[in-house]
Structure formats: structure tokens, C-alpha cells
Amino acid sequence: MTTYFPSGKGLADNRKWLVVDAKGKTVGRLATEVARILSGKNNPQWTPFMDMGEHVVVVNARHAIFKGSKNEQKVYRHHTLYPGGLREKSLKEMRETKPERIIELAVKGMLPKTKLGKAMAKKLKVYADADHPHSAQKPESIEL
């Protein structure tokens, strides 16, 4: 008896494009489902060391919600790599300037921190509003 083992040939050619509407969805729950799709864990042929996932387009990122007191307390931090270079932005500031970055950071935090995880993250496209330039790929709309 042999076990089916997928080869890496033709994976990029057969990827589907999926559209997810973030309007009214909780950011964390949305991010876990999107990360599962990007990594391919919803695919029955999933293999840990291959990028088996699909392309995901998230629209209406501006209208995703946070539960509890995160709206007042959540802070995004990054360091410029210069002395004293710790920069902080509140959730409110991020929503005003870069609402799509909120979803991107949440999903990327749930992917592996390896070369494979970076390849998975490249398949994620996030847009603040309902418009996206990927209509030529004929994306399927899915409900999470």
C-alpha cells in the first residue's frame, strides 16, 4: 500500500483566488480562517513543507471589528533599528491611516516565521474598501 504524496509541480498554476468580505467580522476570527486558507490546511492534500494554499483577497478591511476593550487599549509597535526608535500607533490611528495593515499584521502573525510563511503571506491582498483590482483572476467569493 502506498500513500498519495503530492509533487510540487503545477501548484502555482492551479491556485484559486478567493474573496473574503471583512465587513462586520471580528479581526482575530477572520485572520485565523484566512491563515488556514493561505497555508492550505483546508486542502485534503495538505503537506507541511509545501505551499498548498490559495490566493486570498480581503475587502472592506476598514469595517472589521474588535471585541472588548481592544479599541482603546491595543497598540501596534515597531522599532526603526535606531537608538530610541520604538514607534507606537494606537488602533484608532491605524484605522484612520492604514486599515488594511491591521488585517495583514493579524494574518501574518498566524503564519510560520520561515521562507514558506513569507511565500504564503505574499498571496494575501487586503483592501480597505470593496474595490479590488483582481477581477481578471475571476475570484470566488466565500463566506467565513
What does this 3D model show about the protein?
- There is one protein chain.
- By secondary structure, this protein is of the alpha/beta class.
- The chain has one domain: Ribosomal Protein L13p, Chain: A (Alpha-Beta Complex), CATH 3.90.1180.10.
- It is 28% helix and 18% strand.
- It has helices spanning 27-39, 70-73, 91-97, 99-108, 115-121; strands spanning 17-21, 55-59, 75-79, 86-90, 124-126, 140-142.
- The strands form 2 sheets. The protein has a 4-stranded parallel beta sheet with strand order 5-2-1-6, covered by helices on one side. Strands 3-4 form a two-stranded antiparallel sheet.
- Helix 3 crosses helix 4 (99-108).
Summarize the structure.
By secondary structure, this protein is of the alpha/beta class.
Could you tell me the CATH topology label.
Ribosomal Protein L13p, Chain: A
Assigned CATH superfamily: Ribosomal protein L13
Oligomer: single chain
Kindly name the structural category. Answer: alpha/beta
Give the overall silhouette. globular
Layout of strands and helices, then pairs:
Layout: E1 17-21, H1 27-39, E2 55-59, H2 70-73, E3 75-79, E4 86-90, H3 91-97, H4 99-108, H5 115-121, E5 124-126, E6 140-142
Helix pairs in contact: 1-4, 3-4
Keywords for this structure?
about 140 residues, alpha/beta, 4-stranded parallel β-sheet, 6 strands, 5 helices, about 30% helix
